[in-house]
């Protein structure tokens, strides 16, 4: 305890900028693991002769992110003890230590022990998903409405930057310094990224009432604003994400070289995503999350229909399809910053981690369903029809979003 606290002086609270910086570090750390798992490790395994079916088994590690709502009430109950200080930092610290231990274990195991690696990375995914519950709940409670856009910008930008570290820098280190060193370096990076949050000061958080109901899923689903929030997520995923699975294959079939595709998906995608996230944070603060989300959906429809026109008329010039792909990344980042900034307002301060986790899991499940559908019909219908249909769905979603936002706001 400091001398000021011992003397009864009020403890200095973190500024919104400090809170956002701490959140950004944790979100980056979470995405480092995703980058290693879904971009770095597949490349290493393929280089070592692993089959595509073996590499595909890594998809099992995404399960904790789709179903983390199942244990979110227990995380929130621990994080928010009634009448006592919150334990957000303890959750992040414990989860971070587990993830770092898994990365050290992966470094010692080596890339040849695929079964052991999958076990370690699944445990790491479970830990990072648990940390995400606590981190999101803390963000909802701490950031005022005018700063929530920046909080979600930190989440989206952190995801892009963390993926670049785990999927890019990791491979460079493997290539030049070896697998073990690369894994140990990722563990050190995780410690550095989480330190600002774990060691930082609290923001202005309202205390949880001593008689508040224990966090649970039924309490979340009883609230109309949560149910409308789930509807908004579904509408947004249908309009914005269902075409994503087609873009990568379309770039290949349009004749772009692997170098071009690497630049677009790597440096270009990260830059566009971070730019979109920062733009989204500023626009949400100025115009509000709902308005920006609706406009972004309209722009997403235009970009998707642009892909349809490119496919239908054979407009496969490298600069044309690259511009569409990068514009898609910018618009998508702006849209999801805006959407989740608005969804923060629908989460109860008594169990923000549970409510917000439900929104994210609905996003993940709807995305996977759409990607499976687009993949199944892609060969039969062709790119022009698939992009055209998903673009039309985005147009319809644009018109449905405004009344859906109004109904959700009325339920508050």
Structural features, described:
- InterPro entries: AmpG_permease/AT-1, MFS, MFS_trans_sf.
- Its main location: membrane.
- Pfam families: MFS_1.
- It is a single chain.
- The chain is an all-alpha fold and 412 residues long.
- The chain has two domains: 14-198, Growth Hormone, Chain: A (Up-down Bundle), CATH 1.20.1250.20; 217-410, Growth Hormone, Chain: A, CATH 1.20.1250.20.
- The protein has helices at 3-6, 16-47, 52-56, 63-67, 72-79, 88-109, 114-142, 148-177, 179-198, 217-222, 224-240, 244-253, 258-287, 289-312, 318-344, 352-381, 383-410.
- The longest helix is centred in the first third of the chain and has 32 residues, at 16-47.
- It is globular and about 65 Å long.
- The chain starts with a helix and ends with a helix.
- Mean pLDDT is 84; it is low at 1-9.
């Amino acid at each position: 305890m400091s001398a000021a606290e011992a003397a009864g002086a009020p403890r200095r609270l973190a500024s919104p900028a400090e809170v956002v910086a701490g959140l950004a570090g944790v979100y980056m750390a979470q995405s480092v693991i995703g980058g290693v798992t879904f971009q770095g490790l597949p490349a290493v395994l393929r280089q070592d002769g692993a089959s595509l079916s073996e590499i595909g088994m890594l998809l099992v590690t995404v399960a904790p992110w789709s179903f983390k709502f199942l244990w979110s009430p227990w995380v929130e109950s621990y994080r928010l003890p009634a009448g006592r200080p919150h334990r957000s930092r303890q959750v992040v610290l414990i989860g971070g230590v587990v993830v770092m231990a898994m990365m050290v274990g992966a470094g010692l195991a080596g890339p040849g022990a695929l079964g052991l690696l999958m076990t370690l990375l699944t445990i790491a995914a479970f830990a990072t998903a648990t940390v995400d519950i606590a981190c999101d709940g803390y963000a909802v409670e701490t950031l005022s409405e005018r700063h929530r856009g920046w909080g979600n910008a930190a989440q989206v930008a952190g995801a892009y930057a963390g993926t670049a570290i785990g999927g890019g820098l990791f491979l460079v280190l493997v290539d030049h310094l070896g697998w073990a060193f690369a894994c140990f370096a990722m563990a050190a990076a995780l410690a550095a990224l989480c330190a600002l949050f774990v060691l930082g000061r609290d923001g202005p958080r309202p205390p949880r009432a001593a008689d508040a109901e224990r966090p649970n899923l039924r309490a979340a689903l009883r609230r109309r604003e949560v149910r409308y929030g789930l509807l908004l997520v579904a509408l947004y995923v249908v309009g914005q994400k269902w075409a994503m699975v087609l873009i990568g294959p379309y770039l290949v079939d349009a004749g772009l070289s692997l170098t071009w595709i690497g630049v677009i998906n790597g440096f270009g995608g990260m830059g566009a995503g971070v730019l979109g996230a920062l733009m989204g944070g500023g626009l949400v603060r100025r115009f509000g999350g709902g308005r920006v989300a609706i406009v972004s959906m309209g722009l997403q429809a235009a970009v998707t229909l642009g892909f349809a026109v490119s496919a239908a008329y054979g407009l496969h010039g490298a600069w044309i399809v690259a511009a569409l792909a990068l514009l898609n990344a910018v618009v998508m980042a702006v849209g999801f910053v805006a959407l989740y900034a608005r969804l923060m307002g629908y989460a109860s301060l008594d169990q923000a981690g549970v409510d917000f986790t439900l929104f994210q899991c609905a996003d993940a499940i709807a995305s996977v369903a759409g990607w499976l559908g687009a993949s199944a019909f892609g060969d039969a219908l062709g790119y022009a029809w698939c992009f055209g249909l998903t673009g039309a769905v985005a147009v319809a979603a644009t018109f449905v979003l405004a009344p859906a936002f109004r109904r959700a706001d009325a339920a508050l």
